[in-house]
Amino acid sequence: MADVALLKCDEYSIDVLKEKFLCGFELIGFDPACFANARVALKPNLLSAVSADSAVITHPIFFQAVAETVMDFGGDPLLVESPAVASLKSAMHESGYDVIIQRLGIPVADTKIARRISFLDGRLLKYFEISAALYDVDMLVNIPKFKTHNLTYITAAVKNLFGCIPGMRKSQMHMRFPDKEMFSEIIVDLYGALVFGFDKPMRMLHVLDAVVSMEGDGPGSSGSPRKTGAVIIGEDAIAVDYVATLFAGLDMKKALTVLYGFMRGFGVSSPDEIRLKGEKMQDMRICGFQTPKTTGMTAFLQVPLLGRIAKDLFVEKPVPRENACTLCYECMHICPADAIDTAVSGRMTPRFDYHRCIRCFCCMEICPEAAISLKEGVMQWLLREK
Fold it and tell me: What is the pLDDT of residue 157?
């Protein structure tokens, strides 16, 4: 059984958040005394260099409250994160994390240094290159932001661990596993590797920032912040994500990292093994939470010829908008398929090669100006639910 705490929290206040955390720890039976003398990796979501209020990243005050809680109980925190394209330094500066890190004296891991972790029970991948710093810690506190995701439907505790893979290696994963089913499988493989792949199983605590979440075309700046007023805490990432998906009123069948997590048995194997503590779900559930526009019909992209034809007919494509694009070329730098090139003379947007495009939507995720929109495939109307 896995206990998950669902707590009401309407503001980013250090004192209020720390009180909620301690309440949540007690509800799930987590003793914060285990932080004493422990080297604790803190893994927020610092996807890109954006402001604190964008809902793209874990709010810096939320991160600070977690860090101070660890330190209050004698823990030695270490920030471990690897943004998609932007340097960690620029992501921390833009969001205000750098001020917090300096004030609290928290060291920052060099995530460019990677080390292999093997996991023979992986379904699609038996090993990963992860931040070497994770081999030097006693436990991992995962601090994700709850958001929608154009490829995986949601990103919360399980998906946030993808940031343990250094830099552009993440883009390589998108190229190798471009459809949402396979990509979700490797995310669950990574979770299994982080839990069971070390010599001693890695103890994890997941503290989900859902005070302000992201709805719509997340997980980047194309999504919209929405006040949801919650903190969700648990030691099982699959269970935490199940509760978060339920809380947002989303379609559980589309949350593949949760479904695959149940099937793989890396923690709980069904909702029946999850005990909700704290607030009642009916009192907290969000109404009308907006989901991504993508259909998720991507499995056929692996089929030669069929994939090229079908993706143009049935899958959305990312299209840059001239009235918003600043030609920063962040999209070009992150594209794993090399499907984006510099603008031609007279055009104010990069060139997209849709034959090469694998529809991973990394460009949309990383665009700092929310300048990339989705355009439906010609025959996509046939896939809409009646």
Answer: 99
Q: CB-hemisphere CA count at 13 Å for 297?
A: 20
What pLDDT sits at residue 367? Answer: 92
Beta bridge partners of 209: 145, 231
Give one word for 359, left, alpha or beta, with left for phi > 0 and alpha for psi -120 to 50. left
Rounded Cα gap, residues 176 and 194, in angstroms: 20
Q: How far apart are CA 129 and CA 113, in angstroms?
A: 9
Half-sphere CA count of 286, side-chain side, radius 13 A: 27
Q: What class, spelled out in words, does domain 299-383 have in CATH?
A: alpha beta
Segments making up each domain of the chain, as ranges: 2-284, 299-383
Q: How many residues does the chain have?
A: 386
Residue type at 256 in one-letter notation: L
Which element (helix H / strand E) includes 142?
strand 139-143
- DSSP codes, 276-302: EEES-HHHHPPSSPPPPS-----GGGG
Q: How far apart are CA 383 and CA 377, in angstroms?
A: 10
Sole residue written with tokens 């695959």: 260
Q: What is the pLDDT of residue 386?
A: 43
The neighbour count for residue 90, using CB atoms within 10 Å, is 14
The parts of the chain modelled with pLDDT lower than 70 are 85, 295-311, 378-386
- Which class for 255: exposed (0-12), middle (13-18), buried (19 or more C-beta within 10 A)? buried
Per-position b or e across 178-211, b if 16+ CB within 10 A of its CB: bbbebbbbbbbbbbbbbbebeeeebbbbbbbbbb
Give the C-alpha separation, 8 to 211, whole Å.
8
Just give the CATH number of 2-284: 3.40.50
Helix or strand (DSSP H, E) at 225: strand 223-234
Distance between CA atoms of residues 375 and 321, nearest Å = 11
